[in-house]
Amino acid sequence: MQTTTLNKVPEVTLSFWLIKILSTTVGETGADYLAVNVGLGTLFTDAISACLLLVALNWQLRQPRYVPWVYWLSVVLLSVVGTQITDALTDGLGVSLYLSTGVFSLLLATVFFLWHRRERTLSIHTIFTRRRELFYWSAILFTFALGTAAGDLATEALGLGFRLGVLVFGALIGAIYVAFRCGANPVLSFWLAYILTRPLGASLGDLLSQAPEYGGIGWGTVNTSIAFLLVIAALVAILSRTSSHPASQP
Hints:
- By secondary structure, the protein is mainly α.
- The chain has one domain (14-242).
- The chain contains eight helices and no strands.
- The protein has helices at residues 14-37, 42-62, 68-92, 97-119, 130-157, 161-181, 186-209, 220-242.
- Helix 1 (14-37) packs antiparallel against helix 8 (220-242) and helix 5 (130-157) crosses helix 7.
- The longest helix is centred in the middle third of the chain and has 28 residues, at 130-157.
- The chain starts with 13 loop residues before the first helix and ends in an 8-residue tail after the last helix.
C-alpha cells in the first residue's frame, strides 16, 4: 500500500509560470557557465549536475508536503540536466535535433501513457503518493529534454533565431491559454504549456546571454544566470512565507 501525503506540487499561478520560465533560462545559461566559463568541462559539469539532482530529488521525495524551495531547487536542477542530456546527444554524439526531438516526444508520451494507465489521471493536483510523484518527476525531466531539443531545432536548425523564437513560443503559450479559457482540457493545456516554457526560456536565455554577433544582447551567461537565480530565490522566498499549501483536487 502506498504512503499518502499532501499534494506535493504547487498551485498553478502566475508565480508558478514565472519561476518555471526563469528556471528554464537558468538551465540553458547555467550549464554553459559551469562548462565553459568556470572551465569544468562538459563531462565534469554533467556529473556534478546529476549528483546534485539526485540529492535534491531524494530530498523532495522525503518531504511530506509541498516545500517551495525544495521543489523549485529540484526543478532548476532538472532544467540543467535536461539541457545537458540534449546537448550531449547533439554536440557530443552528433545526434540530429530532428531525431532527438522525436525520441524525447516518444519517451514523454510513454511516461504519460503509463502514468494514466496506472493512475487514471495526469492531473498535478493529485500528486500525493510516491508512485504519482515518480511519474511526475519523470515527465518533468522529459519535458525539459524535449523542450531543449525542440527549441534548438526551431531557433538553430530551422533558423528562427533567438528573438523570433521568444515571440513564437510566447505566442504559442498565449494561444494555449486562450484555448484553456475557452474550455480546452485543463490537464492537456497545462502539459502543452509546460513543455513550451522550456524552449521559451532557452530562447530567452540565449537572447540575453549570447554576444550581439550571434544574435543576442550580450549580457553573458554569468550575469544572466545570477540575475535569474536572484529573481527565482526572491519569488520562492515570498512563496515560502505567504502561500499556504493548495488543497488537493480530484
